[in-house]
Amino acid sequence: MSGCKELQERFDKKEDVYNYTAQMYLGKEAWENLEKKEKKRLRSSFKTVCLGLMYGLGKQSLATRLNCSVEEAQRLIDVFYSTYPRVKEYIKEQGDYVLSHGGYVNNFFGNKIQPDEWKYYQEATTQREKKNQEARLKRLGVNLPIRNCSLLK
Question: How many CB atoms lie within 10 A of CB 83?
């Protein structure tokens, strides 16, 4: 969906995206020297990062979920985005799209969806409320097409 050629390449080769990203973080040699348990932990961390970013989590929320410092969470995010650069652009584009297209999001099939949050965004009476609804809409702009696509499984 993002058009990220690096990510598509991993899928085409039937590689584990999360393991691959962990290898990019550590380096192949360091990865190969890890015990199975530690590899599993790192894979889980990068799965949390990948899916968390798609659901709109930031470094603070990821740090909490991963039980690490905010700085470490940011490093994990940076590695993910440097490994899959188009994903970062996709997240921004999708978030901006919903706001510039009357609250509509295109699903996997090209159908337009307007989440209820658009109404709440328009009805917001305070700057804080509007900002919170805007952030929610941006997350939905990224998330709804992915969730809609998961119905295909």
Answer: 21
